[in-house]
Automatic annotation (TrEMBL):
It comes from Caldicellulosiruptor saccharolyticus (strain ATCC 43494 / DSM 8903 / Tp8T 6331). Pfam families: EutH. The chain crosses the membrane at residues 6-25, 37-57, 77-94, 106-127, 139-161, 168-186, 206-226, 238-257, 307-328, 334-354. It comes from the Bacteria. Keywords: Membrane, Transmembrane, Transmembrane helix. InterPro entries: EutH. This is Ethanolamine utilization like protein. One of its GO terms (molecular function) is ethanolamine transmembrane transporter activity. One of its GO terms (cellular component) is plasma membrane.
Length: 364
């Protein structure tokens, strides 16, 4: 699609500008952003390359259980797997392997795994490890709004791109049930649910490290430890492509950020957020972890909105975009639309929630 080509030209041009700025001594502060993009991607690559190497083997293990559960819940294996796996930590590749249906691969492997899967497999375990106890209540409330917006965002994306909406609804009906359970469990602070998310995140990290061990042995000796097919070439080439794309996007969005920050007063006035709240919203477009570290400096409203966006919109121009640009560039526009429309729904939902809450307090 045209928008995908435009984005790639923008990012490649921005990447070139960053390197040219490096030659003249980082005069425009673009070179440092290109380098920062590579550094961020180095951390992201370390957390995903082992999974990338193992995904054919993991798909082989998961294909039968996922199909059984899909029949049981009248859904699709790709959709079920994507509820717990982030897009760049096995969600996309494993979903693509376990399902033959293109719509299911798109809904599950891209739209769901980049939102719900990323939330359960990454954001929640990380957030509950970073945030102090006194800030968790606001994060929980905001994240609940974000989770509720995920199915709505997928349905709106399906309508906009002309998909079979009834088919999509049937596919995500089970997801809606999961979202309701999650919303109730998180609202009640079920520690067993939170601990399960932490265990899942820890298990993914351990699995990734095991994959890195096998990958290192395979590269250095030329022999595979596993007797099954692995993705050696892809796990080497993909991270480099991602790093270049993210370095370019960092430069591009640093320019956009500098422009937007001048007009952030309008956003701050409309949403009544403090400066750290605005900065957190912009930063989480690349990665939500730095936003979580800003939580202490935000006001209450900013914390709730940023929590909602951490679920729906985080990494829309960060590692997730880099990953998708490397493996399935034709789906970038759908990915961006879904993340951004879900983010707008999350902001709208948060504003309505806060207005309702203030009215209730006023009545008291």
């Amino acid at each position: 699609m045209l928008i995908n080509k435009v984005l790639f030209y923008l990012f490649s041009t921005s990447f070139a500008l960053g390197l040219l700025d490096k030659i003249i001594g980082d005069k425009f502060k673009l070179a440092s952003k290109a380098e920062e993009g590579f550094v961020i991607m180095a951390k992201a690559i370390f957390s995903m390359t082992g999974i990338l190497y193992l995904y054919p083997f993991l798909s082989f293990i998961l294909i039968n259980p996922s199909r059984f559960l899909a029949r049981l819940f009248q859904s699709d294996g790709a959709v079920l797997i994507s509820c717990i796996l982030p897009i760049d930590m096995g969600g996309y590749h494993i979903s693509s392997e376990v399902s033959k249906d293109e719509t299911s691969k798109l809904i599950g492997g891209i739209l769901l795994s980049s939102t719900l899967g990323a939330s359960i497999g990454f954001t929640y375990p990380v957030a509950f490890g970073i945030l102090k106890k006194e800030y968790r209540d606001e994060f929980i409330r905001g994240s609940l709004i974000g989770i509720i917006c995920i199915p709505a965002g997928i349905l709106l994306t399906s309508i906009f791109y002309g998909f079979d909406v009834l088919k999509v609804f049937r596919l995500i009906f089970f997801v809606i049930a999961i979202v309701i359970i999650l919303a109730f469990g998180i609202a009640k602070e079920w520690f067993i649910l939170i601990n399960l998310m932490k265990i899942l995140g820890r298990a993914m990290n351990i699995l990734n490290l095991i994959g890195l061990i096998f990958l290192g042995f395979h590269i250095l000796t030329g022999r595979a430890i596993l007797p099954y097919k692995t993705a050696l070439d892809e796990s080497i080439k993909l991270p480099l492509k991602m790093a270049i794309l993210i370095a370019g996007s960092y430069v591009f969005f640093s320019i956009v950020y500098n422009v937007l920050i001048k007009y952030s007063g309008f956003v701050r006035k409309y949403l009544t957020l403090n400066q750290q709240g605005i900065e957190g919203m912009m930063i989480l477009l690349i990665n939500c972890v730095p936003t979580l570290y800003l939580y202490e400096k935000m006001d209450s409203k900013s914390r709730i909105i940023n929590a909602a966006l951490s679920i729906t919109t985080a990494s829309v121009v960060g590692p997730q975009l880099g990953f998708l640009g490397a493996v399935a560039p034709s789906y970038i526009s759908i990915f961006l639309f879904n993340k951004l429309i879900s983010g707008l729904l999350a902001i709208g939902g948060t504003v309505l929630y806060l207005r309702y809450k203030s009215k209730q307090l006023y009545k008291i």
